[in-house]
Amino acid sequence: QETLRDHPKMGRYVCVFICLFLPCLCLGLSNDTCVLSPSTPDCTGYQLSLPEIQANIGILCSPGTGMPHMGGCTIKRICDNTPSLASDPFCNAFSIYKDLCLDMPMNGCQDFVSMCSNTSVIEQCKTRALPLPGSGKVLPGLITSICQMSMPECSQCIPQALVQSLVANPSAMQALSRDRVLRSDLASQATQMAMSMLQCDMLQVYSDLCMSMPDMTECSSWKVMCYDIPSWELCPGSSQAEPQMRMYFHTGILDYILFKQWVPRSNWAYALSFIAVFAAALLHEFLRMMRKRVEDNWQRNNYGDPVSLTDESEAPLMSSSRVAPSMPGFKPNIDIPRALLHGLDVAWGLLVMLVAMTYNVGLFIAIILGAVVGVLVLGRFLYSSGYKPKTSCH
Q1: For an engineered disulfide with 366, which of 66, 67, 277, 345 has Cβ 3.0 to 4.6 Å away?
Q2: DSSP SS3 for 250
């Protein structure tokens, strides 16, 4: 019977094989052991490989095998579509995997559940995850509660007909939002709502709702989440975010200015908007001055010396030889242009007022500065003939 001693070259090959491949086999065994027994002290530096993490995320976010409406899948979509977030710690593959498995530990989370148990020493398990509201009951309940106000974004998760029927029945809406679906009359509505929720991007819709009205009590979870990712599209700091409805004085650049398309999303755009609002307030003063000059001209040519347009009762009494007719006749060449000028004056003043009602401090200052500069430049033409300033917005 031959042995390795009779074949010295074969013996050397066997030694080389043992030296090169045995450590690899041992390492593979150690990895499997760390997933199954994560409390082993030697497993501190173990890391689940990127291909394994991506495969598990694929299972969790695929329509056929997982639940793509989960918040973690929304985070993955944003990270994949936003190159600037490539280095963001919350776009780390394991962080997204952790988001998904902490939300709903379903098929695809076996590795995470096993390796990140309470006794685990694996450092990778300490990777930060976003504090996302749960996709199982929390998010559907929050969206349903907010949608009692029938906001436009609600139709993405709840059919419009169902929204209208629930708004008309507040007790049913409250019962569904609090997961009280044991009532027989709500069974079909609960089923319909659950099926529609599975078809929508709940975290995106929830964030859009909260960006529209951030002071709602249901948005506390959204504020906690946005504390960590303020510049993401889910949060108000994003350049793609929708402006918030804030009915109090505030700073910042993101606000609707008169039109849906007029939303400054950069410092340059806000600076140009400031100049435009300043010019609008200045032009309003110019319009008032021109109206006053035209009225003076009409007064002089038709009724004698001009008097104050704002309070004729304070005009000096005219002598008996210059008493104006008690009921002037209708003059189309005067009365029609006067009415049009008055309408333009009112409309322009209301537009400036609507800009002020954004409660944006910068735009409010632009309006004040425009009015001040307008009176500074044009005031002598307005007040030289007894004009008295109005106290209304127009």
Answers
A1: 277
A2: strand
The angle formed by the CA atoms of residues 105, 106 and 107, to the nearest 5 degrees, is 135
CA distance to 93, 106, 109, 341, per residue, from 55 (Å) = 11, 14, 11, 69
What pTM value is reported for the model? 0.57
Token reading at 154: 């609600």
Element (H, E) at 58: helix 50-61
Distance CA 207, CA 210 (A): 5
Chain segment 296-355, per-residue pLDDT in tens:
777 777 765 544 444 444 445 444 445 555 666 777 777 788 888 888 888 988 999 999
Helices 138-146 and 170-177: crossing angle, nearest 10°?
160
Distance separating alpha carbons of residues 114 and 106, to the nearest angstrom: 12
Which tokens belong to 310? 């704002």
DSSP per position, 114-125: HHTSTT---GGG
User: Given pLDDT bands bounded at 50, 70 and 90, which one contains residue 181?
Assistant: very low
Tokens of 390: 């109005």
pLDDT above 90 (res 240): no
Query: Which three-class secondary structure state does DSSP give residue 360?
Result: strand
Single-letter code of the amino acid located at 391: T
* DSSP string for 14-75: HHHHHHHHHHHHHHHHHHHHHHH-TTSGGGTT----HHHHHHHHHHHHSTTTS-TTSHHHHH
Residue 288 buriedness (CB in 10 A; 0-12 / 13-18 / 19+) = buried
> Using alpha carbons only, how large is the chain's radius of gyration in Å?
35
The pair of structure tokens assigned to 37 is 């027994």
